[in-house]
Amino acid sequence: MPLGLLMLGLSLLAAVQTSTVKNCHPGCHCEVESFGLFDSFSLTRVDCSGLGPGVSMPIPIPLDTTHLDLSANAMGPLSDTMLAGPGYTTLVSLDLSSNYITEINHNALSKLRYLDTLDLSHNQLVSLHLNCFSGLPLAEVDLSHNGFQEFDLDVFAAKVNGEPVSVDLSHNRLSSVTTTSRGKVLHIQTLNLAGNQLSSVPSLAGLPLRYLNLDSNLIAEIEEGAFAPLKDLVYLSISGLGRLQQIKSNGFKGLQSLQVLDLSNNPKLVSISPAVFSGLDSLQELNLTGSGVTALPTNMLTHLPSIKSITLGRSIHCWRTKKQAQFHRQMGPVQHDEVLNCNVEGVVL
Ligand SMILES: *[C@@H]1O[C@H](CO)[C@@H](O)[C@H](O)[C@H]1NC(C)=O
């Protein structure tokens, strides 16, 4: 193919055409985005947010709508019919945030067979029926800023495909998070539990978690093996725990894939014994900014063979560098002629 034609083809593929839709409900804004050669692929986005209370549901939307924003419509409890109109079956993404939703009926979401992204944040949910997500191929669910006090993650066992799901449960009132499904695999990869009332690390055995956030909870102590079954975890944030005073030896045991550990802003955490870090074979970044820890135990590097960066105190940063000296006196099994250097004298490593 001549280069000119190829370039033309590529630019047609990349071009995004936007056009408005004629049969759009008054008060909504509808837009079709077409991609590809001859506009072969299109997305219909419909924004019906903030229509005010009293609007009758389901709001008519164009057939083939893929993205629908129904936020801030004072919807109240979700009945089985409110999301059951024509056009709803093709939805890939649905925003139901800020709607005073107190309850979701058993079949309220059952027509949404292609739903990938669901935003239920800023509502008043305190519980969910165990089969309310049944049959949905969800990949991202935002349940933050609701009123949950306890949550059973098994609600995600009913979704249809085995694709991983990312769940945001931050800023609820959770004191308990459970997963009881025996035999069923829960494909939760990302879990945000920040800003809740958890007083200990919940048992998340059996989840293939890669990202976990437990910031700003009431956890005072991390027990030995608290995270033990989470062998796929790559990123762990346990920051802003005003009560955290102690991490027991082997507290991070089993986290063989962990690369980033954020322990910042834990002012009551004043010392860490080297054995706390045992098992963290992949850890590259450790953040202790704003914690009470001001010096590091001498032999901690023996437990952290992959460490690249440690941030300590308010402005102390240590990083791994090639050693210049001729003799190869190492600190722990950090690569042959590499050492950790800090930008402040007198940090004990
Ligand atoms: C460490 O944590 C502090 C406070 O949460 C944050 O501001 C900083 O960017 C983090 N540093 C690194 C190197 O991640």
TrEMBL record:
Q: Which UniProt keywords apply?
A: Leucine-rich repeat, Repeat, Signal
The protein's matches in InterPro entries, at most eight in alphabetical order, are given as: Dev_Immune_Receptor (IPR050328), Leu-rich_rpt (IPR001611), Leu-rich_rpt_typical-subtyp (IPR003591), LRR_dom_sf (IPR032675), LRRNT (IPR000372)
Signal peptide segment: 1-18
Q: Which SUPFAM superfamilies match?
A: L domain-like
Keyword hit for Signal: yes
SMART domains in UniProt: LRR_TYP, LRRNT
A Pfam family of this chain: LRR_8
Quick one: a GO cellular component term?
extracellular space
* The LRRNT domain, residue ranges: 23-67
| Full protein name | LRRNT domain-containing protein
The gene is tsku
